[in-house]
Amino acid sequence: MCVIRMYFYRMLNGRFQRFVGIAFFLLPVQPTESVAQVLATFNISHLTSGPVSVNLDNITPLPDSLLELTAMNGTKKTAVNFQVENTHHRFLWWVPSKNGAVYQLSKTANPKHREENVTAAKENDGMVIKNNGHSLLKYNYKTAYPPKGVDTAFKRSGFIHPLWSPAGNVLTRINPPDHYHHYGLWNPWTKVLFEGKEVDFWNLYKKQGTVRFSKFLRQESGSIYASFRTLQEHVVFDSIKGEKIAMNEIWDVRAYPVNDGVWICDFTSVLSCAGDSPVTLEEYRYGGFGFRATEQWNNRNSAILTSENKTRKDADASIARWCMIDGDIGDGHSGILFMSHPSNYNYPEPMRVWPENMNKRGDVFFSFSPTRNKDWNLVPGGSYVLRYRMLLYEGKINAAEAEAAWRSFVHPADVTVQLPKNIN
């Protein structure tokens, strides 16, 4: 019910006199909860080709609406998908549009349900990340064995295969006859000094060591990305003392579908000594983040280009910020852009790139190898981080587009946060 004071005027003795009356009206009252509570306004400093995030620690209410504000005959508001990450801090993640620079975060009484269309779930002995049911990558946590008749020393776990392109083409390969120890996307080290002995975790046929999945630490699904974090162990084989763990490694893998033709995968490796013994990753041309490409690619239908304008003719042993590999596959053309972060050891990183005549057909192998030209000493108590991003795409991209993608990785957009006075 609403009470309104009404004023009436009439002429009396030549002057206007005011009389007061009171009227009662029954009016519908909208509940205050139905009005959106603006939690924050975000301004993005520059356009970016990837996801952005902002810290929400200073915002107590949990948001349920994100709107992109654009000027078009006034203010236009477009609902945007977002995801809230709750770890040690709370972050909001979303993928800005090409035109969006201002966003409004709100809480409403009747929030719309947001589908977790990007999922991470165990399936067929692996952790599979999917987007709307379409597979993006599979992390194999169960031990995979080589083909029948091949020495079982080539078995291992803790690797990514398949890695799919946005169109569903498989870009990785495992256990090729020329190198049974190749496992899609994997991260072993070749020459490792541990407790006075040299150990090879890369060439499994030597039976000196391997890398094993230990356990999952976290997994997450949502509207913007899916992720998992896993612990892996670098195990030393000793015929007398038995097995011993030399290094622990945490993989943090996160996939963001950007659009129908592009998706992004962030890969972070955190190495640490497993005990009181130091570890030295010795100089060698192989070691680190490796990629064995699909058997469909060869020197006639694929190409490699680095940030320093090197190709397969001269890329090997060179250094680069990024390396782009694409080729004909299936009925189309797919590619992957590997990007290295400036915080990585020995950045810009040297690479191992197979020559054009490899296996007489030009098979494709690529690796960022930070220890290619220098040792890396790991001491107990330390954590050693390597960060990479992969951009998966259909068709082709040029060097300028690759450079822009790398800049979005290493220089994400700054987000200015404006809070209403009543937010606490």
In short:
The chain is mainly β. It has one helix at residues 399-410; strands at 2-12, 15-25, 37-44, 52-55, 65-71, 75-79, 83-86, 90-94, 102-107, 118-123, 126-131, 134-140, 159-163, 185-186, 192-194, 197-199, 209-220, 226-236, 244-259, 262-273, 279-281, 289-292, 302-306, 319-320, 322-329, 332-340, 349-353, 365-368, 376-378, 384-394, 415-418. It has one helix and 31 strands.
Overview of this protein structure:
The chain has 424 residues and is mostly beta strands. It folds into 2 domains: 33-114 and 413-418; 118-410, Beta-galactosidase, Chain A, domain 5, CATH 2.70.98. Helices cover 3% and strands 48% of the residues. The protein has one helix spanning 399-410, and strands at 2-12, 15-25, 37-44, 52-55, 65-71, 75-79, 83-86, 90-94, 102-107, 118-123, 126-131, 134-140, 159-163, 185-186, 192-194, 197-199, 209-220, 226-236, 244-259, 262-273, 279-281, 289-292, 302-306, 319-320, 322-329, 332-340, 349-353, 365-368, 376-378, 384-394, 415-418. The strands form 7 sheets. An 8-stranded antiparallel sheet has the order 17-18-19-20-30-26-25-23, with helices on one face. Strands 6-5-9-3-31 form a 5-stranded antiparallel sheet, with no helix packed on it. The chain is globular and about 70 Å long. It starts with a strand and ends in a 6-residue tail after the last strand. The relative contact order is 0.14.
